[in-house]
C-alpha cells in the first residue's frame, strides 16, 4: 500500500465505493423481493383462512343437516313403523305390497344412507385437514 500513489489510492477507494454501492443495491433488491413475498404470503394466508372458515361453516351445516335427517328418519320410524334396523333384516322398510314403489323407497333409503356415510367421512377428513393446517 505504501508504494501506491495518491491517485491509485483514490482510484481504489472509488472502486471499493462503487462495489459497495452495487452490493447495497443488490441487498435492497433482495429486501424488496422478500417484502413482496411476505405480502403475498400474508395475502394467501388470509385467503386460506377465509376458505377454511367457509369449509368449517359448510361442515357445520353438513353435520346439522345429517342430524336433521337422522331425526326425521327416527320420527318416520316412530310414526309409520316403516323402518327396521338394517343390520337385522338387511332392509330399511318392510315390504307390504311388494310393488316397485317399495323397491324404489328401499333404494332411495340405501342411497341416503350411503350419502350420509360419505358426508360424515368427508366432514371428518375436512376436520383433520383443518387441524393439520392450524
From TrEMBL:
GO terms for molecular function: SNAP receptor activity; syntaxin binding. Its main location: membrane. Residues 14-76, 99-134 form the T-SNARE coiled-coil homology domain. It is found in: Cell membrane; Synapse, Synaptosome. It comes from the Eukaryota. PROSITE patterns: T_SNARE. InterPro entries: T_SNARE_dom. The keyword Hydrolase does not apply. It is a lipid-anchor. Residues 52-79 form a coiled coil. GO terms for biological process: synaptic vesicle fusion to presynaptic active zone membrane; synaptic vesicle priming. Keywords: Coiled coil, Repeat, Synapse, Synaptosome. One of its GO terms (cellular component) is plasma membrane. Belongs to the SNAP-25 family. This is Synaptosomal-associated protein 23-like isoform X2. It comes from Heterocephalus glaber. The gene is LOC101706557.
